[in-house]
Amino acid sequence: IDPAGITASNLASNTGYLPSGVSLQYDNGNYYGFVTQRHGGLLRLDFGSALGAPNFVDLGNFSGALGDSTLGLDIVKDAANEWHGFCVDGKNLIHFYWGSNLSSTPTVNTMAFNSSFYWPYSITMKKWGNEWIAFVINRAFSSVVRLEFGSSLSTTPTPTTLTPSGGFLNAPVNIALHQHAGIWYGLITNI
């Protein structure tokens, strides 16, 4: 992939905060980038119909729902063509709901996971059959939390803490998942 012609923008100078999660989506003929800000906030990058220099839209911290531990971001479209986004913030899972148009301002639902999250660092959403599943990396617990939503992303998911044997998790920060021939594979990075 040749990045020629695509310019990088300094997000910190545009917002005053450090970026912590990013997602790029295409919706209704336009490209949108979304960036969570480490100290609370969601930024939308409006690219228009072609990727180039975006317009920055600071969506704010949603009345304090996004705090000083906002990390990770994944955005997906469900079977009803509605957009949902998720990030982690301290002991909380944050659910953004855009409906059918990413250019709108999302509504936000905060779900507490006090006994499951301890310094969650990233989140990855996957659909398996008709079920939605998220995987959250817990940096301090050196574990992965599987969140089972069932068929609706608007429900409060059921958490299960996974601690792989072998001791290879040591302050993990990211996870990438891929399914091949019916088997899921994951890569996890440690600091």
Give a written overview of the molecule.
There is one protein chain. This protein is mainly β and 191 residues long. Helices cover 3% and strands 55% of the residues. It contains 1 helix and 14 strands. The protein has one helix spanning 11-15; strands at 19-27, 30-37, 42-48, 55-60, 70-77, 83-89, 92-99, 107-112, 120-128, 131-138, 143-150, 158-162, 172-180, 183-190. The chain has a 4-stranded antiparallel beta sheet with strand order 1-2-3-4. A 4-stranded antiparallel beta sheet has the order 5-6-7-8, with no helix packed on it. A hairpin with a 5-residue loop joins strand 5 and strand 6. The longest helix is centred in the first third of the chain and has 5 residues, at 11-15. The radius of gyration is 17 Å and the shape is globular. The model has no long low-confidence stretch (mean pLDDT 89).
Helix count equals: 1
Query: Beta-sheet strand percentage?
Result: over 45%
User: Unreliable segments (pLDDT under 50, ≥5 consecutive)?
Assistant: none
Label the overall shape. Answer: globular
Taking all residues together, what is the mean pLDDT?
Answer: 89
In whole angstroms, the N-to-C terminal distance is 27 Å
Q: For the report, how would you describe the main beta sheet?
A: 4 strands, antiparallel
Strand order of the largest sheet: 1-2-3-4
Instruction: Label the structural class.
Output: mainly beta
Rg, please? 17 Å
H and E string: HEEEEEEEEEEEEEE
Name the helicity range.
Answer: under 10%
Number of E-type strands: 14
